[in-house]
Amino acid sequence: MSGTLEEIIAQRTKEYRQAAGLSATVLARRAGLSKAMLSKIENAQTSCSLTTLARLAEGLEIPVTALFRGVDVESEAVFTPAGHGAEIVRRGTRIGHRYQLLGALRGVHRRLEPVLVTLTESSEVFPLFQHPGTECLYMLEGVMVYGHGMSSYTLTPGDCLQFDGAGPHGPQRLIELPIRFLSVTAWPG
């Protein structure tokens, strides 16, 4: 929805009042406003103070934030069509190991990093990764043994492993190739 803030508050106020089955007179009384002031609010003819907004919300028995629903807010979204994730090179990238970034927000919204990992060739030595945050692996295809700290887990399709990224972790043995899994890292802070 677009419009001025006053128009959005006007529309939300009227919608909530009507949904509650309240007349303008009853809502004005409940909110401690004059009927004329409520009419100005519902017709977007005045700006509301925080006190007035709080009184309206209380009279309607809704959270004050409900009066702002529909305000256009810039927010970031990342869409990655199937097969088009950015190839990333990281420690451990080698022939037969593909890391595909499925999306990443920037700045303060960088909280999750989803990566599709595909392993098509066996390797003798696997690197151990360590990083801040929490990681979650979801197996899509194949079978592997994955280590975290002193523990080992045999992962098959449908299995999920969540762990603290600060602990040393990584594949220990590739049992059935190809192996594909989704790795989602939740960064701290």
H/E series? HHHHEEEEEEE
**Global outline:** elongated
Which stretches are low in confidence, meaning pLDDT under 50 for 5 or more residues running? none
**Helical segment tally?**
4
CATH top level of the largest domain is Mainly Beta
The CATH superfamily title of the largest domain: Jelly Rolls
Percent of residues in β-strands: 25-35%
Number of strands: 7
Keywords: DNA-binding
Protein name: Transcriptional regulator
GO molecular function: DNA binding; DNA-binding transcription factor activity
Organism: Acrocarpospora pleiomorpha
Task: Please describe what this structure looks like.
Keywords: DNA-binding. Pfam families: Cupin_2 (PF07883), HTH_31 (PF13560). This is Transcriptional regulator. GO terms for molecular function: DNA binding; DNA-binding transcription factor activity. There is one protein chain. With 189 residues, the chain is of the alpha+beta class. The protein has two domains: 64 residues, 434 Repressor (Amino-terminal Domain) (Orthogonal Bundle), CATH 1.10.260.40; 101 residues, Jelly Rolls, CATH 2.60.120. Helix content is 22%, strand content 31%. It contains four helices and seven strands; from the N terminus they run ααααβββββββ. Strands 1, 2, 3, 4, 5, 6 and 7 form a seven-stranded antiparallel β-sheet that branches. The two termini are 32 Å apart. The mean pLDDT is 87.
